[in-house]
Structures are given as structure tokens and as C-alpha cells.
């Protein structure tokens, strides 16, 4: 469905080569990394400033046309798809690190800056930005989906680390939310309402995020376990003891096997924990000893330590490759994403029951995740043209989500609701809370033009 | 103004002795710890359950009568006052610790539970709840004002530590928000919208909060400095180095003098930092050495260490007494509260300029605060019947707030907006953001019956 002619002309005049209705650009902006069927927008605008975004939103509002913000398209829940058509607002050109306040530990960036780009810009400051979802996502996209990653157990998620935003509202007004003070009791927390709202309440165009001193000492370790249960018990005891571990990641045997093939490593193919400890040299040593003692008691073996930066990088590169490595287990397949998170006391039970489900299906399914938070993923590999495989994937996904909600957990620890998890929102939060969400959406976007069809069922 | 007769009769029948229109009860519920003129409600209900609160809210909504939630009345910004009359809903009987999940580090409590009561209930679990505003406030009140205290630099504020709520909406509906998973990307963050909303968007009746392992080792220290600037520089360098200090509190000479008189201590009467370090024995030792080296460089002297619990308690009791000790400097006076917070890099400048203001007025003003977060208070002592003193107090308060906002800080770090800071909300957030807040209020409380007159200008 083409855009209204008047809107088309206005956008074309204003944005020239940064506006397109070309099929390939629209298709590229209408798909993500997941199994969701592509749904291309009618046009794409490459915005270069908050004011341009405000102008696009205002024009689209006048014509009743949806606007879908787009970063790098690394969503796995269909966030960037345009099921109702409209304009995809690509923020990738808004990639300037605006200011680094090293002395206060914060930085303000345009929303199209990616996490790696920010960390590159921080070189020499002694600071880093810890949040690391699998992809090199934009900070805008990460804020919109309340993303996290491997460091969240120590440093929190985007919820804890976005301090302020510049946001374009549904009618094109530009507002600032939050501020640079470390704490404030001044008024409603608009920043945290926007974080996780997936572009449905406003389009975040600039973000102020917290930074952290690079630890004086870092050490990493890998340890294998006789069973996945033993590995999970090690995690639970570590967290319950309050060890301030920076990262604690679980990978199952299939994941290790995929990593060895993909990354040419020779890691033991068994249930494995990857650890990282941050602190002073003595503090890191002490944390590591505590965790090793817990692991020893639970049958952990083959502890491999990495304190040199290159050894740590090699280890963590292997961990970061896990997703892509698993995709190679079945060439040409797509990944059906799952992303549950449960209270840590239920994690062993949740994983055990999920493994029993996995044993019942024909498709390969790898399990790994950020278990220090109680969060894990299944990499469910499917041929999207194979109805039986898609059915099995949907069954596994539904089962693990329903199990997690029943265990007082969540249907998504870090991927967001998007299109894929809308059906679970009421089960998780209750009809009452979802009605409140609808009332907020109605208050801030009464015409339902900001990323319509996402989040709310 | 009495309540409508039908409402009066219904409340009287339903709540019997837990309903009163008595003058003394209404007056008690219509004043707080601050200089705000009392504004009594027309009636008080002592609620015992979420369902009772829902019933009161529903009845009041039918009659267009305001409802003002009340905990222990320790607000210093007029939150519990009833400027438009209505029913004060006292939650102090809702003081049950409902469940402690020691293995997950969280607890669910009724909103009338106080912070000390929760910590008493945690004895034997190895866990504690760190947020400690000056008063033994209720957790409901603390959540409503986004409170913090001395431990926030390490453990965060109520913003970071409320995981879930049960909330009664303006029409009497009961909703649950958030959950027990450590992280979630599932939908709008209603919990953080309610935290800090000061009872204007809903009445939180139950809360799930995070708990922390009691550190293996704790040590405290006091150190005096030749100038307040030297003390503040010590704080700034400590924070910038990333030392995970648990508490770092500044008190000026006048505060120390007041404490010595009130608490019969013999602390040096000079600008002073109180520290507390949490961790393993070696970690605590290391943190303390780092901080002592910084302090030494800046002329810190008389380092006094306290590792025995009784010595630590004595020190921190002195710190906690500071507010009441200062009140005794001028018997019969009231305190005009201030509560600013700035980015740490601006803290020295902010305090120095504020001291220059203090030198210009006749009233005694003590300065202390949670400087690790950039947050400090002035205890401005006034005779509320003395117009000149009230004028000086208002001038000091306005100056420090405007200075903090100009330094990208906030008009309230932890007390909330209430009645007292409404006039600064636009200066801090801009008209656009305040309009968004108004739209949210309108969406959730269209009749403006939940704590009307608070937060929004």
C-alpha cells in the first residue's frame, strides 16, 4: 500500500536520497533476525537529527501513517516489522557520541550509536559500557527492548543504565526525560516508562547512559560439569552467596559442540559455565576461589583460567559466537527464539523440565544463557518451510514460556514482546495491568501510529 | 468540609472503629515533619487489606472525594496533607511481612511495613534490606517517594529495589505490576512508573523488594578534613576510582557540634566523612586502604576505624541522629527541608556556592548528606512564626535548587516533590515532559482523586 501522495511528496522533497520506497530497502527494513515473516514498510527515511525525526512523526501523524523506528534490525521478536505498513525511520545515521562525562561516569549518545561504537569511543577514558546483547545493536534499540546480556548480573540491564532520554512523542513534540543526577525523586519516571516500550510510546533519539570504571583486574574461567543440573546448582549457590560475579553463563553440550566446530576451539563438549570476575587483583582471586570451591563440590572439572586479555577475549569470543555457531548446526535454518527468565531458585527445575521437552522433539535445540539472572535461551533450529518443525518449535516455545510464568518468571528476559510474545502478556501480568498499559498507550499515542501492533495484545 | 453523608455512613458502617472524623486524628493525618501548614483530611480510615483499600477508593470515587495514602507521616514535602480534604487512608495496620524468599533474595510485604520491621523479620536469613531514609518510614511511603538514604551509593534507591507491586487504581481496580524475575522485557514498566508517583497514580498496597546478603565483613571509619572542599574531593575521587563503598556521608562542622551535644559523643568538630565498606575481609581492607590514601593526600586526619559491630553502631547512630541533633540547635524550631542532588563532578562547586549563601543569612543551617550520590541536605532551622526567618529559608532553598538544576542536577534527590517542590518541576524537566506526566495522570486518575495537588504543578 503506497503512502498518501502528499506525504510521499513531502518526505521526498525534504529527505531526497535519504527517503526511499524501493523494494529492497523496504524489505530490508521489514525483517529481523527471527522467524517472523517479513512485513515491509511502504517507505524508509534515514534520519540525521532529532528534529528530522520530529518532522517525520508530525507529517505521518497528519496523514495517519504508522512510524516504525529501526536501528540495525537485530531484533528477534519482530519489533522492526511493519505489519500495518508505514514509514520505517532508520536511525543508523544518528551515530554520534555527543558527550562523554568521564568524571561522572555517563555519556550522551544519539540513539543510532551501537554498543561497540560507544566502547570504542570510551578508549582511553578508563570507562566502559557493560550491556552486551548478542548483536552489536544500537543503544536506541537496546533501550527500546530493555536489553541486557552477559554482564547484567553485575551491572544491570538497560532499565538500570539509561539515565535520560530525548524523545519524540507521537505528535512530533520533543521532550527530555530524566537527568544526569545519580538519583532523583522529581516526578514520574518517564525514562523507565520509555525504556522497554519498544517504540510504541515515543521514539528515543538521544540517550544518557551510565558508564563504569574498567576493573583493575579481570579474570575469566571455564568449567565443565557432569550434568546441567550440577552447573545450575553452582550458579544458584554463587548468586545466593552474594559473590559479585560479573558474568556467569551456561552452555549445554550441543552449544559447545557447535562452538568447537564454528570457532575451531577444543573446549570440552559438556555442560559448561563461563565465568568472569571483576575487581581488584585480590578481590578477583578471592571471588574465583569461592566459586571454584562451589564448583568442586558439585563435580566441576577442567577449570581453565584466563587472566591475560587475549585468552579472555578468545574465551568470550567463543561464548559470543554461540548463537551463530548453533545456526550452523543446520545450514539454511532460522532460529525460533525463546528468552525466559525465572527466580534463581526455580532455575534448575525450569531447565530440567525444558530438557525433558527437548528430548521429545526432532529438531536440534541448544540451550544457553545468562543464568546468573535466571535467564536462558533455547536456540530452536527450524526449516521455516517445514510445518512439522515449526509446530515443534512453537510447542517448545509455548511450553517454556508457560512454565516460566507459572514459576513467577517472565516470558522474555531481554528480547522484548514485539510481535512474538504479545499472546503471553496477559498471562504474565494479568488483564488489569495490561489494561493500564493500554491506557498509557492511548494517552501518549491516541492514533496508534508509533510502532503499531507491537507489545499490546 | 464534611464528607457527603452517604459516604460517611457507608464508611462508618463498614469500618466502625477504624473510621474516624475526630479532630485530633484528622489533624495528626494532615501534617508531616516539615514546615508545611497542616491540612487535615475530613476523615481517616485504617485499612487492613488491599480489598478494603479498593473499597474505600471505589466509594470515594463514586462521591468525587479525594483519597490520600498515609504511612507514618515522615514526609518532609507535604505528601500526606489533604489540601482538598478527603479521606486519609492509613496503611499502618497493613504491616505484615507476607513472604521472604531467602533463596531468591526478595520479600513481599504489605505497604505499611517499615524498613526496620522488615530488617527485624530478616534476622537469621543472612539477608538485609539496605534502603534507609532518616525516619523508620513504611516501605509503601518509601516506594511512593522513591526514597533512598545512606546505602544508595552501593545498593541503589527504591527505583532499583522495588520489583513488583499490588496497586489499587483510581477506580478501585486491583492490579499487579512487575514480577519476581531479576529482569524482564515484558511490557511497560508499570512498577517504576508507580515508584515515585507519590500516591497520585495508584495506591501501592503490597511490594516485592530486593534483599542483599549481609556482607561477610563490614568496617566503618570517620575522618575529618581541614575544609569541606577537601572532604568533597575525597568523595569525588573515591567514586571516580570505582571503589564499591557502601556508604559515604559528609557532615559539616555545625552538624558535628550538634551531634556531640545531642549524642554525648566527642567527635572532632570539623568537616567529616563517615564511610562504610562491605565485602570480604580482604576486600574491605583493600577498599579502606584505597580511600585512606585518597583522604591522606587531601589532608584527612583523625581516621577512626570501627570494625566491631557495637563501635559501628555507635558511629552510625551518631550519623542517623544528625537531623534530630540539628533540630535541638534551636529549640522549638522547624526544619525547612532541602534535598538536592547533582552530578558528582559539580558537587564541590555546588556546596561551595551554597556555603557562600549560608554565610549571608542569620538562621543556623547545617549541611550533610549522601555525597557519594551527589545528594546533600541543608537543615535550615526556622521559627515558622518569624517572617524574616521564613523568607531567608525560602531564599536559601530556592537558591540551592536553582543552582542544582543549572548543574544538571535535581530539585529532590530522595524526598519527593509533594507540595513543596511542584514549582521546580518544569524548570527541571521542561514543560514538554511535565505535559507527558499530566497526560499519564489524566489517563490513570481522570477525576484527580488520588492524592490531588501533589507532584504536578
Distance between the termini of chain A: 24 Å
**Beta-strand content bin of chain A:** 15-25%
As for the number of domains of chain A, it is 4
Low-confidence stretches of chain A: none
Q: Number of helical runs of chain A?
A: 16
Mean pLDDT of chain A: 96
**Overall SS class of chain A:** alpha+beta
Please state the second-level CATH architecture of the largest domain in chain A.
Answer: 2-Layer Sandwich
Share of residues in helices of chain A: 25-40%
| Form type of chain A | globular
Chain oligomer state:
homodimer
Rounded Rg of chain A? 22 Å
Largest interface: A-B, 91 and 91 residues
CATH C-level class of the largest domain in chain A is Alpha Beta
Examine the coordinates and then state which fold CATH places here, giving the name of the CATH topology of the largest domain in chain A.
Uridine Diphospho-n-acetylenolpyruvylglucosamine Reductase, domain 3
The biggest sheet of chain A amounts to: 8 strands, antiparallel
Number of strands of chain A: 19
Structure write-up:
The structure is a homodimer. By secondary structure, chain A is of the alpha+beta class. Chain A folds into four domains: about 90 residues, Uridine Diphospho-n-acetylenolpyruvylglucosamine Reductase, domain 2 (2-Layer Sandwich); about 120 residues, 2-Layer Sandwich (Uridine Diphospho-n-acetylenolpyruvylglucosamine Reductase, domain 3), CATH 3.30.465.10; about 110 residues, Alpha-Beta Plaits; about 80 residues, Alpha-Beta Plaits (2-Layer Sandwich), CATH 3.30.70. Chain A is built from 16 helices and 19 strands. In chain A, strands 12, 13, 14, 15, 16, 17, 18 and 19 form an eight-stranded antiparallel sheet that branches. A five-stranded antiparallel sheet of chain A has the order 5-6-10-8-9. The interface between A and B is large, with 91 and 91 residues.
Amino acid at each position: 500500500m503506497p503512502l498518501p501522495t502528499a506525504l510521499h511528496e513531502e518526505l521526498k522533497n525534504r529527505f531526497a536520497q535519504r527517503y526511499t520506497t524501493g523494494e529492497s530497502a523496504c524489505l530490508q527494513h521489514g525483517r529481523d533476525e527471527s522467524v517472523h515473516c517479513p512485513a515491509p514498510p511502504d517507505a524508509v527515511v534515514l534520519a540525521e537529527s532529532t528534529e528530522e525525526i520530529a518532522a517525520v512523526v508530525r507529517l505521518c501523524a497528519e496523514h495517519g501513517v504508522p512510524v516504525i523506528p529501526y536501528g540495525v534490525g537485530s531484533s528477534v521478536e519482530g519489533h522492526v516489522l511493519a505489519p500495518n505498513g508505514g514509514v520505517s525511520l532508520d536511525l543508523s545515521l544518528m551515530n554520534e557520541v555527543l558527550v562523554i562525562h568521564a568524571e561522572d561516569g555517563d555519556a550522551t549518545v544519539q540513539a543510532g550509536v551501537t554498543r561497540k561504537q560507544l566502547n570504542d569511543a570510551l578508549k582511553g577514558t578508563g570507562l566502559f559500557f557493560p550491556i552486551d546483547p548478542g548483536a552489536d545493536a544500537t543503544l536506541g534499540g537496546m533501550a527500546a527492548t530493555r536489553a541486557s546480556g552477559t554482564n547484567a548480573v553485575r551491572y544491570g540491564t538497560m532499565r538500570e543504565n539509561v539515565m535520560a532520554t530525548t524523545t519524540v512523542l507521537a505528535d512530533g513534540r520533543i521532550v527530555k526525560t530524566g537527568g544526569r543526577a545519580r538519583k532523583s525523586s522529581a516526578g514520574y519516571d518517564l525514562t523507565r516508562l520509555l525504556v522497554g516500550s519498544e517504540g510504541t510510546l515515543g521514539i528515543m533519539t538521544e540517550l544518557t547512559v551510565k558508564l563504569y570504571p574498567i576493573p583493575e583486574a579481570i579474570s575469566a574461567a571455564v568449567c565443565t560439569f557432569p550434568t546441567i543440573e550440577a552447573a545450575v546448582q553452582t550458579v544458584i549457590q554463587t548468586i545466593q552467596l552474594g559473590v559479585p560475579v560479573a558474568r556467569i553463563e551456561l552452555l549445554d553440550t550441543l552449544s559447545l559442540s557447535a562452538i568447537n566446530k564454528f570457532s575451531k576451539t577444543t573446549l570440552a563438549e559438556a555442560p559448561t559455565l563461563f565465568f568472569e570476575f571483576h575487581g581488584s587483583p585480590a578481590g578477583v582471586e578471592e571471588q574465583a576461589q569461592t566459586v571454584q570451591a562451589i564448583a568442586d563440590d558439585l563435580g566441576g572439572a577442567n577449570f581453565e583460567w584466563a587472566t591475560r586479555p587475549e585468552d579472555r577475549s578468545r574465551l568470550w569470543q567463543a561464548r559470543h559466537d554461540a548463537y551463530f555457531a548453533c545456526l550452523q548446526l543446520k545450514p539454511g535454518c532460522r532460529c525460533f527464539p525463546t528468552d525466559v527468565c525465572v527466580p534463581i531458585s526455580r532455575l534448575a527445575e525450569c531447565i530440567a523440565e525444558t530438557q525433558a521437552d527437548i528430548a521429545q522433539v526432532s529438531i536440534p535445540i541448544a540451550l544457553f544463557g545468562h543464568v546468573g539472572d535466571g535467564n536462558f535461551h533455547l536456540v530452536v533450529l527450524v526449516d521455516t518451510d517445514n510445518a512439522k518443525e515449526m509446530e515443534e518449535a512453537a510447542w517448545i516455545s509455548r511450553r517454556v514460556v508457560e512454565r516460566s510464568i507459572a514459576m513467577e518468571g517472565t516470558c522474555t528476559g531481554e528480547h522484548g514482546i514485539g510481535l512474538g510474545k504479545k499472546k503471553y502478556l496477559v498471562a504474565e501480568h494479568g488483564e488489569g495491568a495490561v489494561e493500564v498499559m493500554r491506557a498509557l498507550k492511548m494517552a501518549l499515542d491516541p492514533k496508534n501510529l508509533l510502532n503499531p501492533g507491537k507489545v499490546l495484545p
